[in-house]
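User: I'm putting together a small comparison set for a docking exercise, and I want a reference complex before I start. The sequence is below, and the ligand is nicotinamide-adenine-dinucleotide. Could you produce the 3D structure with the ligand included, as structure tokens?
Assistant: Of course. I'll restate your input first, then give the structure tokens for the complex.
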Amino acid sequence: MIAEPTIAEPTISVIGLGYVGLPLAIALAKYFDTTGYDIDQGRVAQLRDHHDRTNEIDKTTLARTALKYIDRAEDLTGRDIYIVTVPTPVDEQSAPDLSALTSASELVGAALGTGAIVVYESTVYPGVTEDHCAPILEQASGLRCGVDFFLGYSPERINPGDREHTIDRITKIVAGQTPEIAKTLSAVYGRVTSGGIHLAPNIKTAEAAKAIENAQRDINIAFINEISMILGRLGLSALEVMEAAETKWNFLPFRPGLVGGHCIGVDPYYLAHAAESVGLHPEIVLAGRKINDAMGDHIAGRIWDLLEMPAPRILLLGLTFKENVPDLRNSRIVDIVTSLRDRGAEVSVHDPLADQDIARDMLGFDLTTELESGAPYDAVIGAVQHDFYRALEVSDISALVGGEGLVCDIKGMWRHLNLAEKLKTWQL
Ligand SMILES: NC(=O)c1ccc[n+]([C@@H]2O[C@H](COP(=O)([O-])OP(=O)(O)OC[C@H]3O[C@@H](n4cnc5c(N)ncnc54)[C@H](O)[C@@H]3O)[C@@H](O)[C@H]2O)c1
């Protein structure tokens, strides 16, 4: 039997250079010999050219990093540690889609040498690393898991666009297949982050911790979304009610809104899948998903009722799933657009950060690139708090809708402008 590796200065490969993998690989490359591999050769070419289309890493950092990019699978051979950061979305039926994880495991398996450690950072449900990925690694490598090579899991917590909770500052959960592997991985991640390491007792615990973090957030937002629907019917502003309630020390300050993106709106389905696999139908977890997925239609319905006209012209500001990022994955703003168009509105969408081609695929029409003046719209909807929109002034907004139009401030980003004094307004 081969001794479990205690690798002092390991060589590392990160597989999947997206929102999670690129910042991680760059952070690791400060301390270790690190290569980064992506199946998307265009992505690798852009990174070699010092361009990160996710906007997470600036040009200067890309120019200075010691990270070596690779786009040939054969160049993965012989590393001490492989860290897998590929997407884990859901399919049409909201079931976990492990296809990227499967193909990345085949790739790593083919490159594995004895003594290597394979760490997964992709968000999964408990059991995926050991029960789904390990057999693929064994099959592709011809090696035995836990004997010839070892597993680890460390969930990623970064938040796109968040410059405070970065990979070098957050507490990292780490788990290893054996205590020795856990020790090695803690030492590696401990070099990268000043936020400390939480050593989980086993891999399934670390996998479950990530899944419940995001499910909890989804449910908390769903509760506030339902509250905002109730308060709206009662003729009250949800934000004003919450500001009052938040003066109590233990009231949780969540805000109503759309839940999109690659994590919060997806990971609860992974948790639900795990629950169903042991014969338990999760009520709250799936109720949160149902409420949050209905929010776009709810917002559209409220705006439609307020407009009281047959074919209003409406401008929606913001399409990305959250503020100040170009990420359009699973953006629920599309639900507002679809619902308003189905009701008969003529909807235009503007977003300075969104990629025009991806946006066209999602919407079926082009993004508006200019903010026209002369009050061409019956309503403007502030949907995403990009800094660009937060900086708009009363005159910019009234140039869009004039004195008669409706201003819908979904995120409450223009509350400081006291728009209600001059314009017709609505907010959640
Ligand atoms: N984005 C986030 O904020 C965030 C936060 C925490 C955890 N996560 C989790 O991290 C994982 C990665 O998410 P992301 O946002 O970085 O995804 P992403 O889509 O931004 O990046 C994934 C990268 O992996 C590449 N890839 C896909 N299949 C591959 C394969 N077989 N081999 C090599 N490369 C492959 C893609 O080309 C892409 O560049 C997911 O499980 C996600 O749930 C994401």
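Residues 15-21, 37-40, 43, 85-88, 100, 103-104, 107, 122-123, 156-160, 262-263 surround nicotinamide-adenine-dinucleotide (CB under 6 Å). The two ends are 62 Å apart (CA to CA).
User: Thanks, that's exactly what I needed.
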